[in-house]
Amino acid sequence: MPQVNGRFVPDMKSPRTPDNEEPAAERACDFRPVDKGFTEEMALAEAERCMDCKKPFCVEGCPVNINIPKFIEQIREKNYGGALDTIREESMLPAICGRVCPQENQCEGKCIRGKKSEPVAIGQLERFVGDQPELASKPAMKPKNGKKVAVVGSGPSGITCAGELARNGFDVTVFEAFFTGGGVLVYGIPEFRLPKAVVKREIDGLEEMGVKFEYNSVVGNIATAEELFDEGFDALYIATGAGLPKFLNVPGENLPNVFFANEYLTRVNLMKANKFPEYDTPTKHGKNVVVFGGGNVAMDAVRTAKRLGAERAIIAYRRTEDEMPARRAELHHAKAEGVEVMPLVSPLEFIAGEDGTVCAVKVQKMELGEPDESGRRRPVPIEGAIEEIPCDVAISAIGTNANPFASKIGGKMELNKWGYIIADEETGQTTDPRIWAGGDIVTGAATVILAMGAGKKAAASITKSLLGE
Ligand code: FAD
Ligand code: SF4
Protein backbone atom coordinates (compact mmCIF):
# COMPACT_ATOMS: atom_id res chain seq x y z
CA MET A 1 0.00 0.00 0.00
CA PRO A 2 1.71 3.32 -1.04
CA GLN A 3 2.48 5.54 2.00
CA VAL A 4 4.27 8.85 2.71
CA ASN A 5 5.19 9.64 6.35
CA GLY A 6 3.03 6.72 7.45
CA ARG A 7 -0.04 8.07 5.64
CA PHE A 8 -1.78 6.25 2.82
CA VAL A 9 -1.41 7.94 -0.59
CA PRO A 10 -4.31 7.26 -2.95
CA ASP A 11 -3.71 6.19 -6.52
CA MET A 12 -4.89 9.29 -8.40
CA LYS A 13 -3.92 8.05 -11.86
CA SER A 14 -5.83 4.80 -12.25
CA PRO A 15 -9.21 4.93 -13.92
CA ARG A 16 -12.19 3.25 -12.20
CA THR A 17 -11.88 -0.54 -12.31
CA PRO A 18 -14.37 -1.73 -14.93
CA ASP A 19 -17.17 -4.10 -13.90
CA ASN A 20 -16.43 -7.79 -14.36
CA GLU A 21 -19.23 -8.52 -16.84
CA GLU A 22 -20.09 -11.62 -18.86
CA PRO A 23 -20.05 -10.91 -22.64
CA ALA A 24 -23.44 -9.37 -23.57
CA ALA A 25 -24.26 -11.68 -26.49
CA GLU A 26 -23.66 -14.82 -24.39
CA ARG A 27 -25.37 -13.71 -21.17
CA ALA A 28 -28.51 -12.50 -22.97
CA CYS A 29 -29.32 -16.14 -23.83
CA ASP A 30 -29.67 -17.39 -20.26
CA PHE A 31 -30.15 -16.30 -16.64
CA ARG A 32 -26.50 -16.44 -15.50
CA PRO A 33 -25.36 -13.44 -13.39
CA VAL A 34 -24.45 -10.55 -15.68
CA ASP A 35 -21.79 -9.16 -13.35
CA LYS A 36 -19.33 -11.60 -11.80
CA GLY A 37 -18.15 -9.09 -9.18
CA PHE A 38 -14.62 -7.93 -8.44
CA THR A 39 -11.77 -10.37 -7.98
CA GLU A 40 -9.48 -9.68 -5.01
CA GLU A 41 -6.97 -8.02 -7.34
CA MET A 42 -9.66 -5.73 -8.76
CA ALA A 43 -11.00 -4.86 -5.29
CA LEU A 44 -7.53 -3.98 -4.00
CA ALA A 45 -6.82 -1.81 -7.06
CA GLU A 46 -10.14 0.00 -6.66
CA ALA A 47 -9.68 0.48 -2.91
CA GLU A 48 -6.39 2.30 -3.66
CA ARG A 49 -8.41 4.95 -5.52
CA CYS A 50 -10.31 6.09 -2.42
CA MET A 51 -8.83 9.32 -1.05
CA ASP A 52 -9.97 8.64 2.55
CA CYS A 53 -11.51 12.13 2.53
CA LYS A 54 -11.63 14.19 5.74
CA LYS A 55 -15.24 15.06 4.92
CA PRO A 56 -16.51 11.94 3.15
CA PHE A 57 -19.53 13.02 1.13
CA CYS A 58 -20.08 9.39 0.13
CA VAL A 59 -21.29 8.69 3.68
CA GLU A 60 -23.83 11.54 3.45
CA GLY A 61 -25.05 10.05 0.17
CA CYS A 62 -25.65 6.63 1.73
CA PRO A 63 -29.24 6.41 3.08
CA VAL A 64 -28.00 4.42 6.10
CA ASN A 65 -24.65 6.26 6.50
CA ILE A 66 -22.26 3.32 6.21
CA ASN A 67 -18.70 4.32 7.19
CA ILE A 68 -17.49 3.94 3.60
CA PRO A 69 -13.88 5.21 3.90
CA LYS A 70 -13.37 2.93 6.92
CA PHE A 71 -14.52 -0.23 5.15
CA ILE A 72 -12.50 0.67 2.04
CA GLU A 73 -9.42 1.17 4.21
CA GLN A 74 -10.03 -2.26 5.74
CA ILE A 75 -10.15 -3.72 2.22
CA ARG A 76 -6.79 -2.07 1.46
CA GLU A 77 -5.44 -3.77 4.60
CA LYS A 78 -6.97 -7.08 3.37
CA ASN A 79 -9.07 -7.11 6.56
CA TYR A 80 -12.19 -8.26 4.69
CA GLY A 81 -13.96 -9.56 7.80
CA GLY A 82 -13.44 -6.18 9.47
CA ALA A 83 -14.78 -4.41 6.37
CA LEU A 84 -17.89 -6.58 6.49
CA ASP A 85 -18.38 -5.87 10.20
CA THR A 86 -18.12 -2.11 9.47
CA ILE A 87 -20.84 -2.33 6.79
CA ARG A 88 -23.02 -4.56 8.96
CA GLU A 89 -23.10 -1.93 11.70
CA GLU A 90 -25.54 -0.10 9.40
CA SER A 91 -26.66 -2.58 6.73
CA MET A 92 -27.67 -6.21 7.22
CA LEU A 93 -27.65 -7.00 3.50
CA PRO A 94 -24.36 -5.90 1.86
CA ALA A 95 -24.26 -8.68 -0.77
CA ILE A 96 -27.75 -7.60 -1.89
CA CYS A 97 -27.32 -3.82 -1.63
CA GLY A 98 -23.92 -3.99 -3.36
CA ARG A 99 -25.74 -5.52 -6.33
CA VAL A 100 -28.98 -3.51 -6.51
CA CYS A 101 -28.60 -0.10 -4.79
CA PRO A 102 -28.78 2.91 -7.13
CA GLN A 103 -25.23 3.92 -6.14
CA GLU A 104 -25.00 6.58 -8.84
CA ASN A 105 -27.68 8.60 -7.00
CA GLN A 106 -26.36 7.80 -3.54
CA CYS A 107 -22.80 7.17 -2.28
CA GLU A 108 -21.08 7.15 -5.69
CA GLY A 109 -23.10 10.17 -6.81
CA LYS A 110 -21.50 12.14 -3.93
CA CYS A 111 -17.98 10.63 -4.11
CA ILE A 112 -15.42 13.44 -4.39
CA ARG A 113 -13.35 11.54 -6.96
CA GLY A 114 -16.38 11.69 -9.23
CA LYS A 115 -16.03 15.50 -9.50
CA LYS A 116 -12.88 15.30 -11.64
CA SER A 117 -12.87 11.71 -12.89
CA GLU A 118 -14.97 8.67 -12.02
CA PRO A 119 -16.25 7.88 -8.52
CA VAL A 120 -14.86 4.99 -6.50
CA ALA A 121 -16.83 1.78 -7.28
CA ILE A 122 -18.28 1.66 -3.76
CA GLY A 123 -21.11 -0.75 -4.67
CA GLN A 124 -18.71 -3.28 -6.17
CA LEU A 125 -16.47 -3.08 -3.09
CA GLU A 126 -19.48 -3.56 -0.81
CA ARG A 127 -20.50 -6.61 -2.83
CA PHE A 128 -16.93 -7.97 -2.77
CA VAL A 129 -16.92 -8.18 1.03
CA GLY A 130 -20.66 -9.00 1.26
CA ASP A 131 -19.98 -12.14 -0.78
CA GLN A 132 -17.61 -13.42 1.92
CA PRO A 133 -20.09 -13.72 4.83
CA GLU A 134 -18.01 -16.47 6.46
CA LEU A 135 -15.44 -13.78 7.40
CA ALA A 136 -17.84 -11.63 9.45
CA SER A 137 -17.94 -11.81 13.24
CA LYS A 138 -20.88 -13.77 14.65
CA PRO A 139 -23.59 -11.28 15.68
CA ALA A 140 -23.78 -10.82 19.45
CA MET A 141 -27.10 -12.28 20.63
CA LYS A 142 -28.75 -10.88 23.75
CA PRO A 143 -30.41 -13.41 26.11
CA LYS A 144 -34.06 -14.26 25.37
CA ASN A 145 -36.34 -11.60 26.88
CA GLY A 146 -39.64 -13.54 26.74
CA LYS A 147 -41.36 -11.14 24.32
CA LYS A 148 -42.84 -12.24 20.99
CA VAL A 149 -42.96 -10.17 17.78
CA ALA A 150 -44.75 -11.05 14.53
CA VAL A 151 -43.26 -9.66 11.29
CA VAL A 152 -45.63 -9.61 8.32
CA GLY A 153 -43.77 -9.93 5.00
CA SER A 154 -40.27 -11.29 4.32
CA GLY A 155 -38.97 -8.62 1.93
CA PRO A 156 -35.84 -6.61 2.81
CA SER A 157 -37.73 -4.57 5.39
CA GLY A 158 -39.27 -7.55 7.19
CA ILE A 159 -36.10 -9.64 7.28
CA THR A 160 -33.97 -6.73 8.52
CA CYS A 161 -36.42 -6.01 11.35
CA ALA A 162 -36.61 -9.73 12.20
CA GLY A 163 -32.80 -10.04 12.34
CA GLU A 164 -32.35 -7.00 14.57
CA LEU A 165 -35.11 -8.15 16.93
CA ALA A 166 -33.70 -11.69 17.15
CA ARG A 167 -30.32 -10.22 18.12
CA ASN A 168 -32.08 -8.21 20.83
CA GLY A 169 -33.46 -11.41 22.38
CA PHE A 170 -37.01 -11.41 20.95
CA ASP A 171 -38.89 -14.49 19.83
CA VAL A 172 -39.63 -13.56 16.18
CA THR A 173 -42.01 -15.17 13.69
CA VAL A 174 -42.12 -13.94 10.08
CA PHE A 175 -45.42 -14.56 8.27
CA GLU A 176 -45.02 -14.66 4.48
CA ALA A 177 -47.75 -14.98 1.86
CA PHE A 178 -45.51 -16.77 -0.67
CA PHE A 179 -43.97 -20.23 -0.29
CA THR A 180 -40.49 -18.74 0.06
CA GLY A 181 -38.81 -15.72 1.66
CA GLY A 182 -37.26 -12.54 0.24
CA GLY A 183 -40.18 -10.53 -1.21
CA VAL A 184 -39.27 -8.59 -4.34
CA LEU A 185 -35.69 -9.82 -3.99
CA VAL A 186 -36.87 -13.26 -5.14
CA TYR A 187 -40.12 -12.71 -7.05
CA GLY A 188 -39.21 -9.44 -8.80
CA ILE A 189 -35.47 -9.02 -9.32
CA PRO A 190 -34.25 -11.69 -11.75
CA GLU A 191 -31.53 -14.26 -11.14
CA PHE A 192 -29.20 -12.58 -13.65
CA ARG A 193 -29.08 -9.52 -11.38
CA LEU A 194 -29.50 -11.01 -7.92
CA PRO A 195 -29.00 -14.78 -7.58
CA LYS A 196 -31.63 -16.44 -5.37
CA ALA A 197 -28.80 -18.19 -3.47
CA VAL A 198 -27.63 -14.79 -2.15
CA VAL A 199 -31.09 -14.07 -0.71
CA LYS A 200 -31.45 -17.61 0.65
CA ARG A 201 -28.16 -17.20 2.49
CA GLU A 202 -29.67 -14.23 4.38
CA ILE A 203 -32.87 -16.15 5.22
CA ASP A 204 -30.83 -19.18 6.35
CA GLY A 205 -28.77 -16.85 8.56
CA LEU A 206 -31.96 -15.59 10.23
CA GLU A 207 -33.19 -19.15 10.81
CA GLU A 208 -29.84 -19.95 12.45
CA MET A 209 -30.48 -16.98 14.76
CA GLY A 210 -33.80 -18.59 15.77
CA VAL A 211 -36.23 -16.58 13.56
CA LYS A 212 -39.24 -18.74 12.57
CA PHE A 213 -40.77 -18.45 9.08
CA GLU A 214 -44.43 -19.31 8.44
CA TYR A 215 -44.83 -19.51 4.65
CA ASN A 216 -48.10 -19.55 2.66
CA SER A 217 -49.53 -17.40 5.45
CA VAL A 218 -51.44 -14.30 4.37
CA VAL A 219 -52.00 -12.18 7.48
CA GLY A 220 -55.49 -10.72 7.17
CA ASN A 221 -56.67 -14.18 5.98
CA ILE A 222 -55.04 -16.63 8.40
CA ALA A 223 -55.26 -14.18 11.32
CA THR A 224 -55.92 -10.50 11.95
CA ALA A 225 -53.72 -8.27 14.07
CA GLU A 226 -56.05 -8.73 17.07
CA GLU A 227 -55.93 -12.51 16.68
CA LEU A 228 -52.11 -12.40 16.62
CA PHE A 229 -52.14 -10.34 19.83
CA ASP A 230 -54.56 -12.88 21.36
CA GLU A 231 -52.07 -15.63 20.40
CA GLY A 232 -49.49 -13.90 22.57
CA PHE A 233 -47.57 -11.60 20.22
CA ASP A 234 -46.53 -8.39 21.97
CA ALA A 235 -45.93 -6.31 18.82
CA LEU A 236 -46.35 -6.45 15.03
CA TYR A 237 -44.09 -5.14 12.27
CA ILE A 238 -45.91 -4.84 8.94
CA ALA A 239 -43.80 -4.83 5.77
CA THR A 240 -46.16 -6.06 3.09
CA GLY A 241 -44.73 -3.99 0.22
CA ALA A 242 -46.47 -2.18 -2.61
CA GLY A 243 -46.96 -4.87 -5.21
CA LEU A 244 -50.40 -3.99 -6.57
CA PRO A 245 -49.99 -3.09 -10.27
CA LYS A 246 -51.03 0.33 -11.58
CA PHE A 247 -53.32 0.13 -14.60
CA LEU A 248 -52.49 1.93 -17.85
CA ASN A 249 -56.24 2.47 -18.31
CA VAL A 250 -56.19 2.10 -22.07
CA PRO A 251 -58.41 -0.13 -24.24
CA GLY A 252 -57.17 -3.69 -24.76
CA GLU A 253 -55.25 -3.82 -21.50
CA ASN A 254 -57.02 -7.09 -20.63
CA LEU A 255 -56.08 -8.88 -23.86
CA PRO A 256 -54.20 -12.17 -23.55
CA ASN A 257 -50.40 -11.65 -23.54
CA VAL A 258 -50.65 -8.14 -22.12
CA PHE A 259 -48.98 -8.56 -18.71
CA PHE A 260 -48.25 -6.53 -15.62
CA ALA A 261 -44.50 -6.63 -15.02
CA ASN A 262 -44.79 -8.09 -11.52
CA GLU A 263 -46.92 -11.00 -12.78
CA TYR A 264 -44.59 -11.61 -15.73
CA LEU A 265 -41.51 -11.52 -13.51
CA THR A 266 -43.08 -13.65 -10.76
CA ARG A 267 -43.97 -16.35 -13.29
CA VAL A 268 -40.36 -16.57 -14.41
CA ASN A 269 -38.42 -15.78 -11.24
CA LEU A 270 -40.49 -17.64 -8.68
CA MET A 271 -42.48 -20.18 -10.69
CA LYS A 272 -39.67 -20.90 -13.21
CA ALA A 273 -41.89 -20.46 -16.29
CA ASN A 274 -38.68 -20.33 -18.35
CA LYS A 275 -38.32 -24.05 -17.57
CA PHE A 276 -41.91 -25.07 -18.49
CA PRO A 277 -42.92 -27.98 -18.75
CA GLU A 278 -40.28 -29.12 -16.23
CA TYR A 279 -42.08 -26.65 -13.91
CA ASP A 280 -45.89 -26.26 -14.00
CA THR A 281 -46.23 -22.54 -14.80
CA PRO A 282 -46.28 -21.53 -18.48
CA THR A 283 -45.78 -18.08 -19.96
CA LYS A 284 -45.81 -16.64 -23.45
CA HIS A 285 -42.34 -16.48 -25.01
CA GLY A 286 -42.87 -13.41 -27.22
CA LYS A 287 -40.83 -12.69 -30.35
CA ASN A 288 -41.79 -8.98 -30.41
CA VAL A 289 -42.05 -7.59 -26.90
CA VAL A 290 -42.84 -4.03 -25.85
CA VAL A 291 -42.40 -2.96 -22.22
CA PHE A 292 -43.88 0.35 -21.03
CA GLY A 293 -41.91 2.09 -18.27
CA GLY A 294 -38.41 3.38 -17.54
CA GLY A 295 -37.54 2.05 -14.08
CA ASN A 296 -35.73 -1.04 -12.78
CA VAL A 297 -38.92 -3.08 -13.08
CA ALA A 298 -39.22 -2.27 -16.80
CA MET A 299 -35.53 -3.12 -17.34
CA ASP A 300 -35.93 -6.45 -15.53
CA ALA A 301 -39.02 -7.30 -17.59
CA VAL A 302 -37.49 -6.44 -20.98
CA ARG A 303 -34.23 -8.27 -20.24
CA THR A 304 -36.23 -11.30 -19.07
CA ALA A 305 -38.20 -11.21 -22.35
CA LYS A 306 -34.90 -11.14 -24.24
CA ARG A 307 -33.76 -14.24 -22.35
CA LEU A 308 -37.06 -15.97 -23.20
CA GLY A 309 -36.19 -15.57 -26.89
CA ALA A 310 -37.51 -12.15 -27.98
CA GLU A 311 -36.01 -11.10 -31.31
CA ARG A 312 -37.16 -7.51 -30.80
CA ALA A 313 -37.42 -6.28 -27.20
CA ILE A 314 -38.37 -2.63 -26.75
CA ILE A 315 -38.44 -0.30 -23.75
CA ALA A 316 -41.09 2.30 -24.57
CA TYR A 317 -40.92 5.32 -22.27
CA ARG A 318 -42.91 8.55 -22.26
CA ARG A 319 -39.88 10.72 -21.47
CA THR A 320 -36.28 10.32 -22.72
CA GLU A 321 -33.44 8.08 -21.59
CA ASP A 322 -32.02 10.89 -19.41
CA GLU A 323 -35.17 10.93 -17.26
CA MET A 324 -35.40 7.15 -16.84
CA PRO A 325 -35.38 6.28 -13.12
CA ALA A 326 -33.66 2.89 -13.68
CA ARG A 327 -30.16 2.32 -12.35
CA ARG A 328 -27.71 3.41 -15.08
CA ALA A 329 -26.03 0.01 -14.98
CA GLU A 330 -29.33 -1.70 -15.87
CA LEU A 331 -29.95 0.59 -18.84
CA HIS A 332 -26.38 0.08 -20.03
CA HIS A 333 -26.66 -3.72 -19.66
CA ALA A 334 -30.05 -3.82 -21.39
CA LYS A 335 -28.78 -1.88 -24.40
CA ALA A 336 -25.63 -4.02 -24.63
CA GLU A 337 -27.91 -7.09 -24.70
CA GLY A 338 -29.78 -5.72 -27.71
CA VAL A 339 -32.76 -4.04 -26.04
CA GLU A 340 -34.12 -1.16 -28.13
CA VAL A 341 -35.04 2.08 -26.35
CA MET A 342 -38.03 3.93 -27.79
CA PRO A 343 -38.29 7.30 -26.02
CA LEU A 344 -41.23 9.72 -25.98
CA VAL A 345 -44.13 7.34 -26.56
CA SER A 346 -47.19 6.55 -24.49
CA PRO A 347 -49.63 3.63 -25.07
CA LEU A 348 -53.08 4.46 -26.48
CA GLU A 349 -54.57 1.04 -27.23
CA PHE A 350 -53.65 -2.64 -27.42
CA ILE A 351 -54.95 -4.28 -30.59
CA ALA A 352 -56.06 -7.91 -30.91
CA GLY A 353 -55.09 -10.14 -33.83
CA GLU A 354 -57.29 -12.79 -35.44
CA ASP A 355 -56.60 -15.25 -32.61
CA GLY A 356 -57.80 -12.70 -30.02
CA THR A 357 -54.35 -12.14 -28.47
CA VAL A 358 -52.42 -8.87 -28.64
CA CYS A 359 -50.76 -8.24 -32.03
CA ALA A 360 -49.90 -4.52 -31.84
CA VAL A 361 -49.99 -1.47 -29.65
CA LYS A 362 -50.96 1.99 -30.80
CA VAL A 363 -48.73 4.67 -29.25
CA GLN A 364 -48.92 8.44 -28.99
CA LYS A 365 -45.66 10.26 -29.75
CA MET A 366 -44.69 12.82 -27.10
CA GLU A 367 -42.37 15.79 -26.67
CA LEU A 368 -40.98 17.30 -23.48
CA GLY A 369 -42.71 20.39 -22.14
CA GLU A 370 -42.27 22.42 -18.94
CA PRO A 371 -40.98 20.73 -15.73
CA ASP A 372 -43.68 19.18 -13.50
CA GLU A 373 -43.77 19.01 -9.67
CA SER A 374 -41.03 16.29 -9.73
CA GLY A 375 -38.72 18.74 -11.54
CA ARG A 376 -38.64 16.53 -14.65
CA ARG A 377 -39.91 17.93 -17.95
CA ARG A 378 -43.50 16.86 -18.53
CA PRO A 379 -44.20 14.70 -21.60
CA VAL A 380 -46.83 16.34 -23.85
CA PRO A 381 -48.60 14.58 -26.77
CA ILE A 382 -47.70 15.72 -30.29
CA GLU A 383 -51.04 16.16 -32.02
CA GLY A 384 -51.75 13.54 -34.69
CA ALA A 385 -48.44 11.70 -34.16
CA ILE A 386 -49.71 8.16 -33.61
CA GLU A 387 -47.85 4.96 -34.48
CA GLU A 388 -48.54 1.23 -34.34
CA ILE A 389 -45.87 -1.15 -33.01
CA PRO A 390 -46.34 -4.86 -33.77
CA CYS A 391 -45.99 -7.07 -30.69
CA ASP A 392 -47.03 -10.51 -29.44
CA VAL A 393 -46.31 -9.65 -25.78
CA ALA A 394 -46.79 -6.28 -24.10
CA ILE A 395 -45.79 -5.58 -20.51
CA SER A 396 -46.83 -2.67 -18.33
CA ALA A 397 -44.24 -1.51 -15.77
CA ILE A 398 -45.48 1.95 -14.90
CA GLY A 399 -45.50 1.51 -11.13
CA THR A 400 -47.42 -0.08 -8.31
CA ASN A 401 -49.83 0.77 -5.52
CA ALA A 402 -50.11 -0.24 -1.87
CA ASN A 403 -50.74 -3.88 -1.07
CA PRO A 404 -54.51 -3.89 -0.31
CA PHE A 405 -54.08 -6.48 2.46
CA ALA A 406 -52.84 -3.71 4.73
CA SER A 407 -56.49 -2.77 5.33
CA LYS A 408 -57.48 -6.38 6.13
CA ILE A 409 -54.82 -6.80 8.82
CA GLY A 410 -56.85 -4.60 11.17
CA GLY A 411 -55.74 -3.24 14.52
CA LYS A 412 -56.20 0.47 15.13
CA MET A 413 -53.61 1.64 12.62
CA GLU A 414 -54.67 4.19 10.03
CA LEU A 415 -54.04 4.19 6.30
CA ASN A 416 -53.78 7.26 4.09
CA LYS A 417 -56.15 7.81 1.17
CA TRP A 418 -53.92 5.75 -1.16
CA GLY A 419 -53.96 2.75 1.20
CA TYR A 420 -50.42 3.19 2.59
CA ILE A 421 -49.93 2.75 6.34
CA ILE A 422 -49.35 5.97 8.29
CA ALA A 423 -46.21 5.50 10.41
CA ASP A 424 -43.78 7.76 12.23
CA GLU A 425 -40.77 8.49 9.99
CA GLU A 426 -38.21 8.02 12.77
CA THR A 427 -39.64 5.02 14.61
CA GLY A 428 -42.06 3.32 12.21
CA GLN A 429 -44.75 3.23 14.93
CA THR A 430 -48.27 3.44 13.51
CA THR A 431 -51.31 5.09 15.05
CA ASP A 432 -51.85 1.77 16.91
CA PRO A 433 -49.04 1.78 19.53
CA ARG A 434 -48.69 -2.04 19.32
CA ILE A 435 -48.04 -1.99 15.55
CA TRP A 436 -45.04 -0.76 13.56
CA ALA A 437 -44.76 -0.61 9.75
CA GLY A 438 -42.09 0.18 7.18
CA GLY A 439 -40.76 -0.33 3.67
CA ASP A 440 -42.81 0.16 0.51
CA ILE A 441 -46.16 -0.19 2.36
CA VAL A 442 -45.34 3.10 4.11
CA THR A 443 -43.24 5.03 1.57
CA GLY A 444 -44.68 3.71 -1.69
CA ALA A 445 -42.42 1.83 -4.13
CA ALA A 446 -38.86 2.84 -3.17
CA THR A 447 -35.56 1.00 -2.76
CA VAL A 448 -34.12 -2.00 -0.97
CA ILE A 449 -31.84 0.11 1.22
CA LEU A 450 -34.69 2.38 2.36
CA ALA A 451 -36.90 -0.63 3.14
CA MET A 452 -34.03 -2.16 5.07
CA GLY A 453 -33.35 1.09 6.96
CA ALA A 454 -37.01 1.30 7.99
CA GLY A 455 -36.87 -2.26 9.36
CA LYS A 456 -33.79 -1.39 11.41
CA LYS A 457 -35.33 1.78 12.87
CA ALA A 458 -38.56 -0.05 13.75
CA ALA A 459 -36.64 -2.85 15.50
CA ALA A 460 -34.89 -0.24 17.68
CA SER A 461 -38.22 1.39 18.49
CA ILE A 462 -39.96 -1.94 19.27
CA THR A 463 -37.05 -2.87 21.56
CA LYS A 464 -37.32 0.45 23.37
CA SER A 465 -41.07 0.24 23.67
CA LEU A 466 -41.26 -3.39 24.91
CA LEU A 467 -38.11 -3.44 27.06
CA GLY A 468 -37.72 0.23 27.94
CA GLU A 469 -34.17 0.13 26.47
P1 FAD B 1 -41.38 -6.37 -0.55
O1 FAD B 1 -40.01 -6.66 -1.02
O2 FAD B 1 -42.43 -6.10 -1.54
O3 FAD B 1 -41.85 -7.59 0.36
C1 FAD B 1 -43.15 -7.66 0.89
C2 FAD B 1 -43.43 -9.11 1.26
O4 FAD B 1 -44.64 -9.15 2.00
C3 FAD B 1 -43.65 -10.00 0.04
O5 FAD B 1 -42.84 -11.16 0.17
C4 FAD B 1 -45.13 -10.35 0.09
O6 FAD B 1 -45.41 -11.64 -0.43
C5 FAD B 1 -45.39 -10.28 1.58
N1 FAD B 1 -46.79 -10.01 1.93
C6 FAD B 1 -47.63 -9.10 1.38
N2 FAD B 1 -48.82 -9.11 2.01
C7 FAD B 1 -48.74 -10.05 2.99
C8 FAD B 1 -49.64 -10.53 3.98
N3 FAD B 1 -50.88 -10.02 4.11
N4 FAD B 1 -49.22 -11.53 4.81
C9 FAD B 1 -47.96 -12.05 4.70
N5 FAD B 1 -47.07 -11.63 3.78
C10 FAD B 1 -47.44 -10.63 2.94
N6 FAD B 1 -34.86 -1.46 -5.43
C11 FAD B 1 -33.54 -1.19 -5.45
O7 FAD B 1 -33.02 -0.61 -4.50
N7 FAD B 1 -32.75 -1.57 -6.51
C12 FAD B 1 -33.25 -2.28 -7.56
O8 FAD B 1 -32.51 -2.59 -8.48
C13 FAD B 1 -34.63 -2.61 -7.55
N8 FAD B 1 -35.18 -3.33 -8.55
C14 FAD B 1 -36.49 -3.72 -8.48
C15 FAD B 1 -37.00 -4.56 -9.47
C16 FAD B 1 -38.31 -5.00 -9.39
C17 FAD B 1 -38.83 -5.91 -10.44
C18 FAD B 1 -39.15 -4.53 -8.34
C19 FAD B 1 -40.59 -4.96 -8.27
C20 FAD B 1 -38.66 -3.67 -7.37
C21 FAD B 1 -37.32 -3.28 -7.42
N9 FAD B 1 -36.76 -2.46 -6.44
C22 FAD B 1 -35.42 -2.18 -6.45
C23 FAD B 1 -37.57 -1.97 -5.31
C24 FAD B 1 -37.35 -2.82 -4.04
O9 FAD B 1 -37.27 -4.17 -4.39
C25 FAD B 1 -38.45 -2.56 -3.04
O10 FAD B 1 -38.42 -1.18 -2.70
C26 FAD B 1 -38.25 -3.40 -1.77
O11 FAD B 1 -38.23 -4.78 -2.06
C27 FAD B 1 -39.36 -3.12 -0.75
O12 FAD B 1 -39.18 -3.96 0.34
P2 FAD B 1 -40.36 -4.35 1.33
O13 FAD B 1 -39.74 -5.27 2.35
O14 FAD B 1 -41.04 -3.12 1.80
O15 FAD B 1 -41.44 -5.13 0.45
FE1 SF4 C 1 -13.40 7.63 -0.81
FE2 SF4 C 1 -15.11 8.88 -2.55
FE3 SF4 C 1 -15.80 8.53 0.02
FE4 SF4 C 1 -13.83 10.27 -0.58
S1 SF4 C 1 -16.01 10.46 -1.15
S2 SF4 C 1 -13.87 8.77 1.12
S3 SF4 C 1 -12.90 9.21 -2.33
S4 SF4 C 1 -15.40 6.90 -1.50
TrEMBL record:
<feature type="domain" description="Dihydroprymidine dehydrogenase">
    <location>
        <begin position="29"/>
        <end position="132"/>
    </location>
</feature>
<dbReference type="GO" id="GO:0051536">
    <property type="term" value="F:iron-sulfur cluster binding"/>
</dbReference>
<dbReference type="GO" id="GO:0004355">
    <property type="term" value="F:glutamate synthase (NADPH) activity"/>
</dbReference>
<protein>
    <submittedName>
        <fullName>NADPH-dependent glutamate synthase</fullName>
        <ecNumber>1.4.1.13</ecNumber>
    </submittedName>
</protein>
<dbReference type="InterPro" id="IPR028261">
    <property type="entry name" value="DPD_II"/>
</dbReference>
<dbReference type="Pfam" id="PF14691">
    <property type="entry name" value="Fer4_20"/>
</dbReference>
<dbReference type="Pfam" id="PF07992">
    <property type="entry name" value="Pyr_redox_2"/>
</dbReference>
<feature type="compositionally biased region" description="Basic and acidic residues">
    <location>
        <begin position="13"/>
        <end position="28"/>
    </location>
</feature>
<keyword id="KW-0560">Oxidoreductase</keyword>
<dbReference type="InterPro" id="IPR006004">
    <property type="entry name" value="SudA-like"/>
</dbReference>
<dbReference type="InterPro" id="IPR023753">
    <property type="entry name" value="FAD/NAD-binding_dom"/>
</dbReference>
<dbReference type="InterPro" id="IPR009051">
    <property type="entry name" value="Helical_ferredxn"/>
</dbReference>
<feature type="region of interest" description="Disordered">
    <location>
        <begin position="1"/>
        <end position="28"/>
    </location>
</feature>
<feature type="domain" description="FAD/NAD(P)-binding">
    <location>
        <begin position="147"/>
        <end position="455"/>
    </location>
</feature>
<dbReference type="InterPro" id="IPR036188">
    <property type="entry name" value="FAD/NAD-bd_sf"/>
</dbReference>
